[in-house]
Automatic annotation (TrEMBL):
InterPro entries: UPF0210
Originating species: Acidianus brierleyi
Range of residues in the leader sequence: none
Protein name, per record: DUF711 domain-containing protein
A Pfam family recorded for this sequence: DUF711
Protein origin, superkingdom: Archaea
């Protein structure tokens, strides 16, 4: 088990407060990424950016905006200000899809990896970026894990318990309340969630995959409660294409298409994530409409990260390597 992210949820926008947590979490060892999530605000993005310390070793989720926000195009400036800046847009209905698709079509691939569309009733308290917003009344924090190997070896409960003990120790060190763990099963390249699904139900995409994703989610929840940890955020199976070598391969060979990926998310995979999709505003709007319908049925948070493809079969990125463009069928 590896601590994938330690994310501090800051309750108010104050430079000294944010800077203090930056210095505190930088001293915590054995963490893959250190992050700070900011609350919803009416400030301009430029004003928010002035409150963030210039430290690229920490990631910042700076703007959780609602889809009807007049400042929404400012998100582009935020994403272009630094590779450690993340944003999300809360989508509640279809009235503002023109603005949302306009933003998506203006993003370069690396920028697109740092913007999420969150379909939910409200902002989400999760360690996972970009869909994180500090929707809290007091400073606090949460953890995200990489535990694919523990899942395969049936050591899930032990991984959760170790992470929980780690969180309690960190709480004493930084003086913030430990809220819990986003127990989502998420991949990183060769530590593949796609491989787990295929071992249980056959090659992606096959009939039975959706059932398997649902069963994995049931197991995650039962192990979380058995381990007496508090699940926060998504706490589901995650299928980010660009972060899972098996999923990448299935998209490249054409056995996993966009419609099939959408079907998998009915079983509570967290959403359409880190997938290259040809740049087409009408396609994006229709896709988002369908995903709003799925979220309404699931009654669970649903996040989207689309990487616009402009004629390429493969999109080159610095942090994620090649991201394949999925077939739209």
């Amino acid at each position: 088990m590896q601590i994938r992210a330690l994310t501090v949820f800051v309750s108010s926008l104050e430079y000294d407060r944010i800077s203090n947590y930056v210095e505190k979490i930088k001293k915590i060892d054995n963490i893959w990424t250190k992050r700070i999530s900011l609350p919803e605000t009416n400030l301009s993005i430029s004003k928010v950016m002035e409150l963030i310390p210039q430290d690229n070793s920490v990631l910042f989720s700076v703007c959780g905006m609602r889809d009807n926000d007049n400042r929404i195009m400012e998100i582009l400036d935020a994403l272009r200000s630094g590779s450690n800046i993340f944003c999300n847009i809360l989508v509640n209905d279809i009235k503002n899809l023109d603005k949302i698709t306009k933003i998506l079509t203006k993003l370069e691939p690396e920028e697109a990896t740092r913007l999420a569309l969150l379909i939910n009733d409200d902002f989400l308290l999760t360690p996972y970026f970009p869909a994180s917003t500090a929707n809290v009344v007091a400073d606090s924090f949460g953890l995200a894990l990489l535990y694919v190997k523990d899942f395969i070896e049936n050591n899930i409960s032990s991984a959760f318990q170790q992470a929980n003990e780690f969180g309690l120790k960190v709480s004493r060190k930084i003086g913030a309340k430990f809220l819990g763990i986003d127990v989502s099963l998420s991949p990183w390249m060769n530590e593949s969630v796609g491989e787990i699904i295929e071992k249980q139900s056959g090659k992606i995409f096959s009939l039975g995959n959706t059932w398997t994703v649902g069963e994995i989610n049931k197991l995650i929840f039962s192990e979380a409660w058995r381990s007496k940890v508090t699940p926060i955020g998504f706490s589901e199976t995650m299928l980010p294409i660009a972060e899972d070598n098996i999923l990448k391969k299935r998209v490249e060979e054409g056995s996993l298409t966009l419609s099939q990926l959408v079907q998998l998310t009915f079983a509570c995979a967290a959403g359409i994530d880190m997938v290259g999709i040809k740049e087409d505003p009408l396609l994006y709007k229709n896709l988002i409409k369908d995903l709003i319908a799925i979220q309404f049925t699931k009654k669970r948070p649903y996040a989207i990260r689309i990487i616009p493809s402009r004629g390429e079969d493969k999109i080159n990125t610095k942090d994620f390597g090649i991201i394949p463009t999925i077939k739209v069928i």
